[in-house]
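Please produce the structure of this protein holding nicotinamide-adenine-dinucleotide.
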Amino acid sequence: MPYGVQCLKEIGTIYNIPLYFEEFDFSSVAYYKDHGDMLPNDWKATLSKFDAIYFGAVGMPDEVPDEVSLWGSLLKFRREFDQYINLRPCRLIAGVKSPLAGREPGDIDFWIVRENTEGEYSSIGGKMFEGTEREIVMQETVMTRFGVDRVLKYAFELAQSRPRKRLTSATKSNGISTTMPWWDSRVREMAKNYPDVHVDKYHIDILTAHFVQRPNIFDVVVGSNLFGDILSDLGPACTGTIGIAPSGNINPEGKFPSLFEPVHGSAPDIAGKGIANPVGMIWAGQMLLHHFGHTEAAATLLKAMENVLGRSDPEVLTADMGGKGTTKIIGEAIINEIKGFRQ
Ligand code: NAD
Ligand code: IPM
Ligand code: MN
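Below is the modeled complex.
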């Protein structure tokens, strides 16, 4: 996070973008420990004043149950700020090695558009006969025409704006026999408005196989909340590491702040060691700039990041990218690269 903020500040200086930051330590440890909750009661009013939230991952599963920390913060933001688009790029960047044999930059370059406020992540359900042999647990998948159509529209428009104009829909209409055939029918319906977009669909099981074996066929992939979640760890893993992957949780209407964060979590297994890859966080800052129309500034930040990664220096790349660099080494390298763009 500190390197992400620093990158934004450097870019802001070059492009004269008046960025104003305020920090809130709403973390599982700091805030939860003292308050027994992830956020203060007035969080919505407080955060609504901002244009964007730049979010560091939460989660300390040994101290706070994940469903408490995530439903108490990130998932709450997504829902209550109606960030119904979760936009996640998968791009193989020069200098970062793909675990897939023979894949070069250009071979993997697509977007995942994930439905972000409903679907499998619903709070409808519950438990009965708890603790008995007849225990029942249920959690309903909830899809609404309003919710599905708006994410499909966004995905079709994104596909239409790209040279290849391809949209892939993630389905499972063979097994999930109510929601998924209906999802497919909404895709068919929406496709009528975009005759120039080439649409295909794959069941989620074979789709994961294609991500590994034929990642080059994808351009824009749209999926439900859970399918999009799974695909957006697999996709970046195919580009080398989830440590570089960014994510925009977007309220396209701008009625509420959008939230930009890395795809990865709090990585408790390496926390405090100073070796976390900051690129996902930095790239999320790039998405933030782009979202607000600072396209040139965003392009410069991307270039700085790509230049550093492109050198493929093992002293700079972090361990998840096969190097022995630290967060500080690569973070500072990207900041220095940005400084090099000053006139
Ligand atoms: P994770 O993404 O935190 O970690 C998975 C693996 O990837 C770990 O081995 C980790 O060391 C590695 N990794 C992740 N980010 C990295 C980075 N920047 N550099 C190098 N390696 C990195 O996923 P998890 O282990 O499933 O979850 C850990 C905690 O984070 C849980 O509490 C989970 O709920 C939470 N989580 C939070 C978010 C979020 O706040 N956005 C997202 C995912 C998971
Ligand atoms: C993500 C994360 C979250 C999700 C978790 C932490 C609730 O995995 O942003 O991809 O499932 O959406
Ligand atoms: Mn995830």
